């Protein structure tokens, strides 16, 4: 659906259009909030807040209510419910009184901020007492924030793992931003998922093939080019030469991309034979002619990732030699690297890098690509995202409201108007029941009465999300050995 054809009145769970009949009489305000609930023993203790600006810019700013859209919704809901329950009159009042702009205020944490789970991330309230029901009408759309938040969070967890191993085995974090490549475009459910998830990954890394994510970062977050890629082969470009001409297929890639890095998938038939007898023998001189700026990146794509990589890197060591870095770990020649994109998730990356370091190899040697584990193998319950009403005003009196199900205490909700502050210990905490001090509140008004109030750039968001030194876990290092050359080859 084109943006101009989008009808906000139809962008909600259909049962919500009946809620104006269900609230208590004389309600004038509904106030709700969004959080990622805290869960014991969860894999993730904190989240990266990202993606709200896109939803606001694309779907909520400006005139979103028109007479044509009211009539479309009226007809649709009449057929859907088979009775007249659509509040045509109220929507027309929004059109007449507010020029079709939503009388809503949204306050949120700055995008890119790292927030411990269990804290408020954004709040929503109506600014015109006549349209109290709007707050939770738009819940359906706003809760879809779970997706970019979850992808940005998982991507950052990858970054922590990669930083840990890279720092321990190389002594620095140089090149970290390129260590995880987004391979997920084809594996997601839609173009919009690719855009949201791809952009969420770009909060933490600068390496991607997901064009939709780059375009979203460009159009909605002011970044001309947020990520980078290199020419790469796929199986079709290799096997189209026929099994007996794999060497010619590889050589063609080297010829066509003689400058700049290039990635070649090498497991179409036998990855070990390809590394030992084609790359390491027949094309050895061609490979060695390349430089660090034009390195060959060999891509295995099947088998057990850790076992395959260890065998591949040993073969490449035999053929091309290696050196020891300042931390005493082995590094392939600068013109040769490996990328693993099959079977990659948070657990396997940690396992692979641990096994490689146990074998004496630096994380400098390898890049990773990730598809479904980054953009698709997740859902709203991954971070337990929830949107709940916490405060109402009726007959001019405010009341803190909450849910507290006896069967599941973890689903209890917060009470009253909320604020987020940093306490005396430096920790973030949510203040309930309207007890927070406005000057301490970290929630920022981002949307009010149809207008975007705050516009974040991707550059700002990346600064908010950057890893702090204390977030890079330590890994036991082998005893440092003096830098020297093995097999006489750099």
UniProtKB/TrEMBL annotation:
It catalyses: beta-nicotinamide D-ribonucleotide + diphosphate = 5-phospho-alpha-D-ribose 1-diphosphate + nicotinamide + H(+). Pathway: Cofactor biosynthesis; NAD(+) biosynthesis; nicotinamide D-ribonucleotide from 5-phospho-alpha-D-ribose 1-diphosphate and nicotinamide: step 1/1. SUPFAM superfamilies: Nicotinate/Quinolinate PRTase C-terminal domain-like (SSF51690). It is found in: Nucleus; Cytoplasm; Secreted. Its EC number is 2.4.2.12. Pfam families: NAMPT_N, NAPRTase. Keywords: Biological rhythms, Cytokine, Cytoplasm, Glycosyltransferase, Nucleus, Pyridine nucleotide biosynthesis, Secreted, Transferase. Its main location: nucleus. GO terms for biological process: circadian regulation of gene expression; NAD+ biosynthetic process. GO terms for molecular function: cytokine activity; nicotinamide phosphoribosyltransferase activity. It comes from the Eukaryota. Residues 179-423 form the Nicotinate/nicotinamide phosphoribosyltransferase domain. InterPro entries: Aldolase_TIM, DUF5598, N/Namide_PRibTrfase, Nicotinamide_PRibTrfase, Nicotinate_pribotase-like_C. GO terms for cellular component: cytoplasm; extracellular space; nucleus. Residues 7-106 form the Nicotinamide phosphoribosyltransferase N-terminal domain. Transmembrane segments: none annotated. Belongs to the NAPRTase family. Homodimer. This is Nicotinamide phosphoribosyltransferase. It comes from Sander lucioperca. The gene is nampt2.
């Amino acid at each position: 659906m084109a943006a101009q054809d989008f009808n906000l009145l139809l962008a909600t769970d259909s049962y919500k259009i009946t809620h104006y009949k269900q609230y208590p009489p004389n309600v004038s305000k509904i106030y709700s909030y969004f959080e990622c609930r805290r869960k014991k023993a969860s894999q993730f203790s904190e989240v990266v807040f990202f993606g709200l600006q896109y939803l606001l810019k694309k779907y909520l700013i400006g005139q979103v209510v028109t007479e044509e859209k009211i009539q479309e919704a009226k007809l649709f809901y009449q057929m859907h419910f088979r009775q007249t329950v659509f509040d045509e009159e109220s929507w027309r009042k929004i059109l007449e009184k507010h020029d079709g702009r939503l009388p809503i205020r949204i306050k949120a944490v700055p995008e890119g901020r790292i927030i411990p789970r269990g804290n408020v991330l954004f709040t929503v309230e109506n600014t015109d007492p006549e349209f109290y029901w709007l707050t939770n009408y738009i819940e359906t759309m706003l809760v879809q924030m779970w997706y970019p938040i979850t992808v940005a969070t998982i991507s950052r967890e990858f970054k922590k793992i990669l930083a840990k191993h890279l720092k321990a085995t190389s002594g620095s974090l140089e090149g970290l931003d390129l260590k995880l490549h987004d391979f997920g475009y084809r594996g997601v459910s839609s173009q919009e998922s690719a855009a949201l998830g791809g952009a969420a990954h770009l909060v933490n890394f600068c390496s991607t093939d997901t064009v939709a994510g780059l375009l979203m970062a460009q159009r909605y977050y002011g970044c001309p080019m947020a990520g980078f890629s290199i020419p790469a082969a796929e199986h079709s470009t290799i096997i189209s030469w026929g099994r007996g001409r794999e060497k010619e297929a590889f050589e063609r890639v080297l010829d066509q991309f003689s400058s700049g890095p290039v990635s070649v998938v090498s497991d179409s038939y036998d990855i070990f034979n390809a590394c030992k007898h084609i790359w390491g023998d027949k094309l050895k001189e061609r490979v060695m002619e390349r430089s660090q700026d034009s390195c060959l990146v060999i891509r295995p794509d099947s088998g057990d990732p850790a076992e395959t990589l260890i065998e591949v890197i040993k073969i490449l060591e035999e053929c091309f030699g290696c050196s020891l870095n300042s931390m005493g770990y082995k590094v392939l020649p600068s013109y040769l690297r490996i990328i693993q994109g099959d079977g990659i998730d948070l657990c396997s990356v940690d396992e692979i890098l641990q096994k490689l370091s146990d074998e004496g190899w630096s994380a400098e040697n390898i890049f990773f690509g990730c598809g479904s584990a980054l953009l698709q193998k997740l859902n709203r319950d991954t971070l337990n995202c929830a949107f709940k009403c916490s405060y109402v005003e009726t007959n001019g009196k405010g009341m803190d409201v909450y849910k507290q199900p006896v069967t599941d205490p973890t689903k209890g909700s917060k009470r009253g108007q909320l604020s987020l502050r940093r306490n005396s210990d430096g920790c973030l905490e949510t203040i309930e029941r309207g007890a927070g001090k406005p000057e301490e509140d970290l929630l920022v008004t981002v949307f009010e009465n149809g207008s975007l109030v705050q516009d974040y750039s991707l550059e700002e968001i990346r600064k908010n999300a950057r890893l702090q030194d204390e977030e890079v876990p330590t890994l036991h290092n082998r005893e440092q050995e003096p830098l020297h050359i093995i097999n006489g080859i750099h």
